[in-house]
Specification:
The chain is of the alpha+beta class. The chain has a domain of 76 residues. The chain has three helices and four strands.
């Protein structure tokens, strides 16, 4: 189908937005873990040579260090030494009456 066609309501066009390089690399990373396959896939999406895409794929694979967080035993603490955050969970009791007793035997006090 061409980019423009005629309908009873007038001419219609299809907008074609190719993916950005970052979107193509993210899609390739979601499909495979192999670096060469990611490069080939992203290059085919962008219609670019693999040499140009390879540098961007390598930069996207570089591990990033989290800023200001320290991890200890899979628990994340704030950057302050010795100060951890406490979480308090309280259970709010229900105000419903128990339904296991007949209506005449319920106590309200």
């Amino acid at each position: 189908m061409s980019g423009v066609w005629q309908t009873k309501y007038g001419p219609r066009r299809v907008r074609h937005d190719p993916p950005t390089l970052a979107e193509a690399i993210e899609a390739a990373a979601g499909l495979t873990d192999d670096l060469e396959s990611q490069t080939a896939f992203a290059a085919s999406l962008m219609d670019l040579p693999e040499d140009e895409v390879r540098a961007a794929v390598m930069a996207a694979r570089a591990p990033r260090k989290p800023l200001g967080l320290k991890t200890r035993d899979s628990v994340v603490y704030s950057g302050r030494d010795g100060a951890s955050r406490a979480v308090l969970v309280e259970r709010k009791p229900s105000r419903r009456l128990p339904l296991d007793r007949p209506a005449g035997q319920r106590s309200f006090g």
